[in-house]
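hiii so um. not sure if this is the right channel but i have a protein structure encoded as tokens and i wanna go backwards to a sequence. like what aa goes where. can anyone help
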């Protein structure tokens, strides 16, 4: 299973980057604009770490994932799935009758592809908890700000502070069982 732009690859849009940078600068008590680029970068890194920790895509974005086209239901790795736009193989959109999609109540996306001689297919979908920085749940946003400030001060190799993990823990999804769909 291959995923493009998946968990841990959060990229802030221009407006969200400005808001995140301002929040981190306030936490750092930095007022000069000369560090804005680096602060924006660590804010994105902190969001990526939040996604890896929680197992959820935080900011809504388009993703693609490659799945086996063997007729079995396949769970998409990113959650929460908002919508599945289509399925492609070999650069061509597959006809609707060659695949099935489902999104369960928990935001898990499922795809079943049976397209003749195709062995793998690419699913195009949208996933994410919030539309933008301001719509993120306050504990997720605050944890990202605190972690970004910490990373900015401490540099590479800095550990995630326990307070940040405590803010994010209620949003963490773990699956210890085998899932079957259909």
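sure thing!! here u go:
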């Amino acid at each position: 299973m291959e995923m493009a732009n998946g968990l841990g690859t959060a990229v802030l849009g221009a407006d969200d980057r400005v808001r995140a940078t301002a929040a981190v600068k306030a936490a750092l008590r930095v007022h000069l604009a000369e560090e804005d680029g680096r602060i924006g970068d660590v804010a994105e890194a902190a969001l990526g770490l939040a996604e890896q920790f929680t197992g959820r895509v935080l900011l809504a974005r388009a993703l693609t994932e490659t799945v086996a086209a063997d007729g079995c239901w396949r769970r998409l790795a990113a959650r929460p799935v908002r919508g599945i736009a289509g399925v492609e193989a070999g650069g061509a959109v597959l006809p609707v009758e060659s695949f099935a999609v489902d999104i369960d109540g928990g935001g898990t996306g499922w795809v079943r592809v049976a397209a003749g001689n195709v062995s793998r297919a690419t699913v195009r979908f949208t996933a994410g908890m919030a539309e933008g920085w301001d719509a993120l749940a306050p504990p997720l946003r605050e944890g990202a700000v605190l972690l970004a400030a910490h990373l900015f001060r401490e540099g590479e190799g800095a550990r995630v502070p326990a307070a940040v993990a405590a803010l994010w823990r209620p949003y963490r999804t773990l699956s210890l069982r085998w899932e079957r769909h259909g």
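oh and Helices lie at 14-28, 36-54, 138-154, 162-168.
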